Amino acid sequence: MSRRIQLRPSKYKIPVISLTVVLAAILAFGGVAQCAAKKPATTKPAAKSSAPSGPKVLTVVAGQPFETVPSSGSSKLLVTLCAEETAPATFSVSYGKSIPGVGVVEATDLIGPSRIVRANVMIRRVDGDNLIGSAYTPDAPVGAVADLSPTPVQFWVDVTVPKDTKPGTYKGSISFTSQNKTIDSLPIEVNIRPMRLVGSSKQYILCPKTDQESSEAFTRFLMEFDKIGFRSVAIDSDPASVTAALNARVSAGLTGQTPLVYYAGKPDVPTMEDVKAIENAKVASGMQRLLYFCVANPIGEDQVRAALDQINIFHRNRVTAVATVYDDNSLQPLLPLLDGVNYHISMPYVQALINGGTNRTNKWEWYWWDARKSVWDNRINSGIALWRSGLYGCMPMWELSDGADPAQSASSMFSEALREGINDTRYITTYMKALRELKDKKREKDKDYIAATETYLAGFMSKPLDQVTPADLRAFRSKMAEYNMKLTAMAL
Q1: Phi, psi at residue 144, to the nearest 5°?
Q2: Can you give the C-alpha Rg of the chain in angstroms?
Q3: Whole-prediction pTM value?
Q4: Residues paired with residue 106 on neighbouring β-strands, in sequence order
Q5: In sequence order, which residues have a C-beta less than 8 Å from that of residue 214 and are 6 or more positions away?
Q6: What is the pLDDT of residues 132-186, one digit of tens each?
Q7: Helix (H) or strand (E) holding 111
Q8: Number of other CB atoms surrounding residue 156 within 10 Å
Q9: Where do the domains of the chain lie, and which CATH numbers do they carry?
């Protein structure tokens, strides 16, 4: 189900003449916004907050991520999250007449029990499904630029909280500038929960379709998905170019315990020497494991036979053989030999698991979908649908935008939704950890509360996916956090 954000004209009607006078006065006496580096930083001693009470010149309306920004309402940005988490917010801006080239910058640090430096607040303009922002440098910290007018322009804000940040409420502001003068500001309040959000227990592997595997731009692309929560990225290379592709992943930091994927996906049957060359490149790069994929989505007898021949070569070299499949009839001849399967999410086996089935195979199993097709599907498929399926993880396919820099292609509502889905499973994983620790105490007095939390989770997971809304997921996260904190306190 796709939910495309649409902007609506603001209902605010402000006299143009009075706004022009106010704007001229502010342009004459406003200060230049201070600069900030993009690199996330650790906490600093607290100081007084200079957060404003609200915008005085521009019409600013705050909204909820993945929902249509309302045409009227509060302008205050509110974000609730945990340390070691990135969370989004969104707002729209309009003005009674056209103002070209208005810049949006981080005007203040966020001040509370400690400090979140302004480099940890990234602001981008929403352009359809893409998020447009200027590159951060020490001399040019502009997050986004837009021409303002009576038609609202939407902005997207990502707040990243370093792991050592103290819980509590943090306040600051976002400034709007024109001709190097501050013309208005917007308050932002960040509430950090007193809990540690652990990593997801699911595995996330991105499968990009690209011919730029060894380019610097592709390395930047990988780094963007590393920030989102992907720990592995598939390779679509032949033995002659696999070394460069592996090195790009090393440069992006994707070298952890998660197996990297050698995504063959071609009907050619590699020789023993080809596989040995790939394994040698893996060892030289420092990678710990590769998964070898046979023909991608084999259809027909010829492709199935080629896939079987590939699997035999893989096994003779003692490497793991996996298949990405779309068609169940093509899968059946391969299934007895495969070590793992990456199913399309629409296949009956996967849908049965998502909808309550428990008849799992004993293989490594993921599912995939087209991640450049639907923002909302990305949120659901990388989040609660994946958890409900019980599968090992997911491998969404990501096709780069035509003519776009790969790193720019990663800056979109599609990738934001993937990260939010991953964070949904992080909240569940954190809750499950606290639940297990309390259960291990085996105390009679804890049983009723434990049962209540499990009943809530089971009830939410049984809700039809097409009825789940962004508001439902916000409430669900809040409930998982509440349960986690109480379970943790009870276990002390």
Answers
A1: -160, 155
A2: 25
A3: 0.85
A4: 174
A5: 241, 244, 245, 247, 248
A6: 886 544 444 457 888 999 999 999 999 999 988 999 999 999 999 888 889 999 9
A7: strand 110-111
A8: 24
A9: 16-195 (2.60.40.10), 203-410 (3.20.20.70), 428-491 (no CATH)
